[in-house]
Design goal:
This protein has 369 residues and is an alpha+beta fold. It is 22% helix and 35% strand. The strands form four sheets. Strands 6-7-8-3-9-10 form a six-stranded mixed sheet, sandwiched between helices. It has a five-stranded antiparallel sheet with strand order 13-12-11-14-20. Strand 4 and strand 5 form a beta hairpin. Bound molecules: adenosine-5'-triphosphate (ATP).
């Protein structure tokens, strides 16, 4: 079948499902991934993200639906004939081989001359900044360096698509943050499309140009990190990414571009931006991120201000997290940046202080499901 290579998205997933017995691990997923994207599949354990990745690699066949890579239908095409490489969490380096040999291993059967192979390995080691480590064995490397060898090996064959399954899972927090930026820089330099599976929302937010959030085999939302964080389309996505306050409410009126929503947990009405779908009587959830809420000792001007008592205060250096108890008993999380240096006694509020919390109507996310 002729390839349409060049035009259109690199990956086209059309109504793909995968069942294991009667269990649907991936349920009617449709998704396009463009060339050169660093795309993340994000979701909790068992949501189907690895199964979707394995179908792209060719290790699993879809029960229904179609996958196209670079315009070519992948049905019946085995992993080694796909323009795809996969980097596993365990890295799977050969312990008895040097870094150089590990990186060059996959090139042996590619019809390259030995000089071409040496050149490519050099190029890859340079890319992952391991030229000085070429002669070492994997056990003589740190976890981060091993991860880079695995990346160099996966990129050596110059695939159109690189699949990475929890690539940073084995690294500690500090190294993980550092390596995230390295992966981004390598992806940018090579221009190869990366699809990363992760359960770590911060990792997805940092790494990816776009994210698909998955739950129970379905894609709940696809968007840029900003879309997903600031404009979640469901209570699931809002709650999955970052922390958030969620209130139940009912629209009491809409006027112009403002809707008024009665929130029993806050003890009063709030203003939110009106959307077409909001009319009096609509039951909705209102989500507000903790960092969008201001805490103050005196009553602020404007709408969406409520009084409560500080029940919890966590000081984290750069910011503080307050839990403010409303008269209804609801606890509201407020995250406040410690922008200036201040002694404890100078902080905006202490335990048991009576305070005001407030937020801009634009910061309230109205969600129906
Ligand atoms: P995790 O982060 O825990 O790896 P995941 O989102 O990657 O989760 P998958 O590995 O895709 O999840 O698995 C999705 C579901 O399908 C799980 O409930 C899993 O038990 C099931 N599953 C996966 N592979 C098989 C298989 N070969 N046979 C039967 N069930 C399977």
């Amino acid at each position: 079948m002729p390839s349409e290579g060049g035009a259109g998205p690199l990956i086209r997933i059309e109504n793909v499902s995968k069942s294991f017995g009667t269990f649907k691990a991936v349920d009617d997923v449709s998704l396009n991934i463009e060339k050169g994207e660093l795309f993340a599949l994000l979701g909790g354990s068992g949501c189907g993200k690895t199964t979707l990745l394995r179908m792209l690699a060719g290790f699993e066949a879809p029960t229904a639906g179609k996958i196209f890579i670079d315009g070519q239908d992948m049905a019946g095409i085995p992993p080694y004939d796909r323009p795809v490489n996969m980097m596993f969490q365990s890295y799977a380096l050969f312990p008895h081989m040097s870094v150089e040999k590990n990186v060059g291993y996959g090139l042996k059967h590619d019809g390259m001359t030995s000089a071409q192979r040496t050149d490519r390995v050099k190029q890859m080691l340079d890319l992952v900044k391991l030229t000085d480590f070429a002669g070492r064995k994997p056990h003589q490397l740190s976890g981060g360096q091993r991860q880079r060898v695995a990346l160099a090996r996966a990129l050596a064959k110059q695939p159109k698509l690189l699949l990475l399954d929890e690539p940073l899972g084995a690294l500690d927090k500090k190294l993980r943050e550092h390596t995230q930026f390295e992966i981004m820089s390598i992806q940018e330099k090579t221009g190869i499309t990366f699809v990363v599976v992760t359960h770590d929302q911060e990792e997805a937010m940092t790494l990816a140009s776009r994210i698909a959030v998955m739950d129970h085999g379905k894609i709940k939302q696809v968007g840029t990190p900003t879309d997903i964080y600031e404009y979640p389309n469901s209570t699931f996505v809002a709650g999955f990414i970052g922390s958030i306050n969620m209130f139940d409410g009912e629209v009491t009126k809409t006027s112009g571009d403002v809707a008024t929503v009665q929130i029993a947990q806050l003890g009063g009405p709030i203003m939110v931006p009106a959307a077409d779908s909001l009319s009096a009587g609509t039951k909705i959830s209102i989500a507000v991120r903790p960092e969008k809420i201001t805490i103050s000792r005196s009553r602020p001007k404007g709408p969406n201000s409520f009084s409560g008592t500080v029940k919890d205060l966590g000081y984290f250096g750069k910011d503080s997290l307050y839990r403010v108890k409303m008269p209804s008993g609801t606890l509201v999380m407020v995250n406040s940046v410690n922008a200036r240096r201040a002694a404890e006694s100078e902080r905006v509020a202490q335990w048991e202080d009576d305070v005001w919390i407030s937020f801009d109507p634009q910061s309230a996310i109205a969600l129906k499901g």
